[in-house]
Amino acid sequence: MVANVGGTAHKLVDHTLERRLSVKGTTSRAVEDTTKHVGQRLWGSLKKHPLAGVGVLGALGVAAASVIGVGEIAIGAAVAYAAFNVLVGGESPREAARELAHELERF
To answer: CB within 8 A of 69, min separation 6: which ones?
Structure first.
């Protein structure tokens, strides 16, 4: 039986965004609440519209590649493909990153 690693990763993200670590009533708690609220909204949007996330992450890949000075389109496509595997295919982020690193070594 194959484990649903992607589903587990999604549950871990949900859990991380729901829990609070700082003391209630402090400035750090207010910052944590605001940050995690924004994170929950973004994560919810990515789960509802995963292809939008693929596009955003692909664009960020192109932007990062242009800063480094390598093949922007190839890097952007590789990052978008990895994002697609995580957001749509349920692949674990770690495995997607491993595959992405392997692909980037070819450049």
So the answer is: none
Q: Say how many domains are in the chain.
A: 1
CB-side exposure of 63: number of CA atoms within 13 Å? 6
Q: What is the C-alpha to C-alpha distance for residues 66 and 15, in angstroms, rounded to an integer?
A: 34
Domain span at residue 67 reads 5-105
pTM here? 0.50
Q: What is the pLDDT of residues 11-50, one digit of tens each?
A: 888 888 898 888 999 999 999 999 999 989 988 888 888 7
Q: Which residue has the tokens 């690193």?
A: 101
Question: What b-and-e string marks burial along 37-72, b requiring 16 or more CB atoms within 10 Å of the CB?
Answer: eeeeeebeebeeebeebbeebbeebbeebeeeeeeb
Residue 3 has pLDDT above 60, yes or no: no
